[in-house]
GNAT family N-acetyltransferase
Amino acid sequence: MNDPAITTLFETERLILRPTSVEDAALILELLNTPKWLKFIGDRHVRTLEDAKNYILERILPQQNRLGFGSFTIIRKEDHNKLGTCGLFDREGLEGIDLGYGLLPQNEGKGYGFEAANQLKQLAFKTFKLKEIHAITVNENVASKGLLLKLGFTPQGTTKLPDDDTVLLLYSLRKTP
């Protein structure tokens, strides 16, 4: 297993990206219950701190251990506040690896999402040796669509995930030589 994400912090100009761990349970609880997460990503039924810890143990850590990458907690260098998450995910029903992100509402509109996602995009190709990454979003999520285009993703049509009738826009980005 290639595991640079599990043992390494990655930095941008303003941010630290650290593999999400159980110590991030409070962030996960808050993030997964924000109005935009519930509207655009879906209800993960995480209602308590214990639910959040279990979500991390059962959904996040197994992928990190299996693939060597997954969810990263976005931390602002200036004050060490946790802003949200960004990651590379192996989603059931989606071929390939998916770039996903979410910020707490108070951290939106400040460029943190682009900064973190752009770093993950670079890591996907350079560190994790992926040839292509994907991203999905609902049509109503205008901010997410704009971010994906700014990152260089190309629209590929629509898709649906298993056991979900939601039509998702599918974007792809291939590694350039």
About this structure: The domain at 4-131 is CATH 3.40.630.30 (Aminopeptidase). The beta strands are 10-11, 15-19, 71-76, 82-89, 97-103, 132-137, 154-159, 168-174. The CA atoms of residues 20 and 38 lie 20 Å apart. Residues 49-67 form the longest helix (19 residues).
